[in-house]
What we know:
The protein contains 17 helices and 25 strands. By secondary structure, it is of the alpha+beta class. A hairpin with a 5-residue loop joins strand 7 and strand 8 (199-206). The longest helix has 32 residues, at 278-309.
Amino acid sequence: xxxxxxxxxxxxxxxxxxxxxxxxxxxxxxxxxxxxxxxxxxxxxxxxxxxxxxxxxxxxxxxxxxxxxxxxxxxxxxxxxxxxxxxxxxxxxxxxxxxxxxxxxxxxxxxxxxxxxxxxxxxxxxxxxxxxxxxxxxxxxxxxxxxxxxxxxxxxxxxxxxxxxxxxxxxxxxxxxxxxxxxxxxxxxxxxxxxxxxxxxxxxxxxxxxxxxxxxxxxxxxxxxxxxxxxxxxxxxxxxxxxxxxxxxxxxxxxxxxxxxxxxxxxxxxxxxxxxxxxxxxxxxxxxxxxxxxxxxxxxxxxxxxxxxxxxxxxxxxxxxxxxxxxxxxxxxxxxxxxxxxxxxxxxxxxxxxxxxxxxxxxxxxxxxxxxxxxxxxxxxxxxxxxxxxxxxxxxxxxxxxxxxxxxxxxxxxxxxxxxxxxxxxxxxxxxxxxxxxxxxxxxxxxxxxxxxxxxxxxxxxxxxxxxxxxxxxxxxxxxxxxxxxxxxxxxxxxxxxxxxxxxxxxxxxxxxxxxxxxxxxxxxxxxxxxxxxxxxxxxxxxxxxxxxxxxxxxxxxxxxxxxxxxxxxxxxxxxxxxxxxxxxxxxxxxxxxxxxxxxxxxxxxxxxxxxxxxxxxxxxxxxxxxxxxxxxxxxxxxxxxxxxxxxxxxxxxxxxxxxxxxxxxxxx
Length: 669
């Protein structure tokens, strides 16, 4: 950001002046710190312009989104020069979603009022319970330390040497803990015992889109400002930046300890130990440094010796024309005996389901944790490939709408994947059963649709890798206890470079009915291939019918043909599952419209998943007119499976999978 830098004293005068001027007209701007793009590098927008409309839509979407419950919001809206990016972050101890969204809404109102027509702005409330920023440039995963503001408690501490050292040790420890957080939360708060039996409270947080290294760098630079221009010798202080914030106080605890993640065991910051005596502090530090250096040298020598004796475990993944050599962390490896005990030696009583590549069992680890174990078939020619592919990809993914991989096992001929256990069965178990789908009202179905969309968006744009799933279908969407969706089965997934848009293959894998036409007929796949599969899923969820066809007497009409015909003829209510026909009809029809946009034959016409998420979250956003879907036929007498075989046979270079229906049977994991 190109902002003017202010000395803190001058900045404070400006804030106080603005607060006084606005006190009568906008009380919610009190205790609100903000920066506009004062150098005007990012430019201005005019009222009612496309950029202004995109900004209003985006801020409305962000501050009303109830689907995210861990306090970090990242959205964009628009195209090219009119695209707007926004990030919202609530403090880690703000666990009440209503409070979080209310804070972000207040920030949104303040920024658009205090920074009128500026394309870039950022604001924080005094207690740092939330931060909101928007810009006309991408700010996701971008570590920025400016603009920043500093504040301090005016009171001076006693016994300064011990106090300052205790503060520094506390914040250094919190920095390490916050930096090691996952993509949902990078936050830590704790206390330490200071001189004169004082309790010093500390809190640090980064935006969770940062890498561990960037988060650490941002916080370290903040802590280093304490003795320079923040709060030297003061009993409290804070440094607040776009990508991170740090605060410590002695007079009161400013965060909610009940919402703080439990700290890991540590011997470096024992808060119950008395503070060191001033005379011993320096000597103790020198001894600790010497011991640490000796210990590190010994560990290095041991590692070199062990590595020389025994090479690390490696195996190679080869799919089509690619060779990816990966080293699997032994920390994820389970012993076969442990999994045998957990599943009662793969007892039939613990069997959850069976698919093309193996069997899934339920198990319980010695610590009581329930797991799902995928045991690959020993005679499956594709088993090793899918196993290695799944470990490579899924171990690096962390998202609430993806099934979490806990580990793996390779012993003898056994190839096992260990997942978190998802209590309810897969989506198809409910949606295609006339009795069970009554359990899914429209609110539940909409939550499932939105959750799947967020999971795919994470795979396509928000994870460290760009991943094309290639086998999105109802049986690969698992439902947890609260019927939240989790995308599973990454055996078919492919890794893309960040700027890669398309790839070709001679080996077609996936499930008929969910595969995009350019993939089936030409072997071309991209993010738009997954968008097509998602569109089919939406239409299945709304109609309650499988994509393979709707049986009417002696004829079998393909689902997309049925839906398009009714949509075109002005009778879309014929599409809707009768069990939800009276629930939020307008919202249901909007989702049908989105589904049809996703299954258009021309891949370029389909929206991206970022656009789909925005469409689902903003009902005021206009939708374009969908064109005819892929595989549309105007007769109900042609069987879809026959149609697919005829079309694929016209392209001899494409080797269609022999499994005509499904890779995995519809059972839970």
